[in-house]
Amino acid sequence: MSRLVVVSNRVADPQDAAPGGLAIALEEALQRQGGLWFGWGGKLCDQSEPQLSISQWDAVTVATTELHKRDHDSYYSGFCNNVLWPVFHNRLDLAAFDPVFYDGYQRVNRQFAQQLLPLLQDDDVIWVHDYHMIALAAELRALGCQQRIGFFLHIPFPPLVTLSAVPQHKALMQALMAFDLVGLQSRQDLQHFESYVLAQADGRISHRHHYRVHGEQTRCEVFPIGIDAHAFAALTHTPQAQQVQSTMTQAYRQRRLVVGIDRLDYSKGLPERIHAFRDLLERHPEHRRSATLVQIGSPTREHLQAYADIRSEFESLCGAINGDFGELDWMPVRYIHQVLTRAQLAGLCHSAAVGLVTPLRDGMNLVAKEFIAAQNPDDPGVLVLSRFAGAAEQLQEALLVNPYDAHSTADSIDQALQMPLAERIERHQKLLARIQTEDVHWWCQRFLQALGQCQPAVQRKPRFSVPALSRIPAADADLPMTRPTRDGSFPYLHVVTGGNAAPRPAAAAQRMGR
């Protein structure tokens, strides 16, 4: 069995007492096959060369690198969060197309490739995660890597016209074609990918799910990510979750809870949600005093102006609706700007009559699936879900809404609050069966099976190198990028084990068959 190598911007913490479903699924696959998890460890460095730290986590090798602050600022805060995130979520108005950002993005992807390459084995299967690492396969191919490399995009793939606004869109898509397999969340994402390849990249469909651009063939399919539904349901029985349920029952004995759980991100449609709830109270006064929206808006990326702006707007709207409709013993909205544990979230979902998941655009949105998993099957709550979340393709029994339409969203909340028990149970049974079958383990197995079916690069023509790579200076006074010498070693690569740094030459030429 081939070893699995997972690459992500950040590496899961082995000491995390309550890891998310993705971390659990990847850990299981890594432990089963033996593997390596590579990514940034969260540390910034001032040295000329970022150091690599290697540790062992049972059968998994964990390798984390450092980043220079300048590179972190331009790569993560810059290109990832100020270009790719807003563009891929259809918010061109929030994008900042600074060329410095893209240069930093390329430098970090190159750094990852150069530090990962010496750690690879001949038959490794490499699985790269998310928009931070779109250029990684191209960088690895340029260094001679011939292993199978797959990529999964957790966020939406944007429409052709939106993606084309990015000045480097052609280089990004050419880099994406260096992967053997590209996984997307939804059929709509695949349609957007296909439209770009055919209309903008002058590509063609060679056969089902295979796309050819300038002689390079890449397989692209839909792999909707799931959750561990049984594990999340089990959280509702933990003391922490039951304490939340008890608190909610006592505080809202005569009222029904409408729950929203989101990061405070502009893609989540939080202002639009408050507008819809206001419309509900205005046109359906019977829900005044009887329905309360408990909205979790956890902090995220607070150093970015767009996130400060959305927080200010949202908190102003919460204050306004409470001021207009609140009474001495009831407020329509309870807003909590904190991070809750997964057990607390499970308890909150279990207590809710309605789950309000209304992003303006989302790759999947696992909160929708967690809400379903946490319900009492004998008296389940109702999910109100945005049509623009990837999850809507799987969760058709939810009440699907257009979050931009406050009037119709309010009507759907009203429908959910008044839905008969028999209908609630019928809808929930179908939704629960789907998330239990199409769970995170199913997702992981499907992707790895598809990647394993891809033809190894060594059996194909040599992979291209992306033209954009040559735009990055070969040397930089602050960050002398590591390049292999003629014997295949990487003279600047240092590995830290046990707190000591030591040079680690890598026979990359031998491994790559040079």
UniProtKB/TrEMBL annotation:
Any single GO BP term: trehalose biosynthetic process
Family matches, as Pfam families: Glyco_transf_20
An MF annotation (GO) of this entry: alpha,alpha-trehalose-phosphate synthase (UDP-forming) activity
InterPro entries according to UniProt: Glyco_trans_20
Stated family: Belongs to the glycosyltransferase 20 family.
UniProt name for this protein: Trehalose-6-phosphate synthase
Organism: Comamonas koreensis
